[in-house]
Amino acid sequence: MCASALMLQLIWCGPALSAEKAKKGEPAKPPASKELSPGYLVKPSDVVPPPDVPLGQYLRTIRPFPNWTLICDENRVKKRKVCNISQEILGPSGATVFSWSLAAMDDGRPVMILRTPTGASSGTVALDLRDGQPPVTVPVYGCNERLCIAYLSLESRLALSAI
Question: With 0-12 CB in 10 A as exposed, 13-18 as middle and 19+ as buried, what is 7?
């Protein structure tokens, strides 16, 4: 562990550490160049803010629960926070075969966003709510090379089956 920390210090601050040793007692100054040692790169953030939001003004929080994950995105410039709660269903191989999120439309109406792998859908997604009624059939909105998306407005039957 200490060797790893020392290696990281040498990668990030190698010239600064050498300068500090040479001056004895003066605080180290960061190197003029922000370049890393050859072969090392700083990995960019996985969270990409919308183009109109300056870096550092977009906040994403993720709160896991037993079967759901709450994700909130906050635009600190517009002082707007949007949250959704999502659940993934995994198949026997461990790959995601279905996911859905409870989100809000721009006008505030609740909607379920359903996702299936491309090719798994025949133009509709059927949800068996196991309430003795026929499955809810949802038309697929669109697909890309990875997944298909369908939208379902939150109706009373769907809301009651979640209780």
Answer: exposed
Specify whether domain 58-161 bears CATH 3.30.70.100.
no
pLDDT tens digits, one per residue of 1-45? 333 333 333 334 444 434 444 444 555 554 455 677 888 888 877
Domain ranges of the chain: 1-43, 58-161
Distance CA(64)–CA(87), nearest Å, equals: 10
User: Helix H segments across the chain?
Assistant: 2-23, 156-161
Q: How far is the C-alpha of 113 from the C-alpha of 101, rounded, in Å?
A: 5
Q: Which residues contact 140 (CB under 8 A, 6 or more apart)?
A: 116, 121, 123, 124, 125, 148, 149, 150
Among the listed residues 95, 96, 150, the one whose alpha carbon sits nearest the alpha carbon of residue 127 = 150
Contacts of 95 (CB under 8 A, 6+ apart): 117
Cα distance between residue 122 and residue 137, in whole Å: 11
Q: What are phi and psi of 57, to 5 degrees?
A: -110, 15
d(CA 126, CA 136): 6
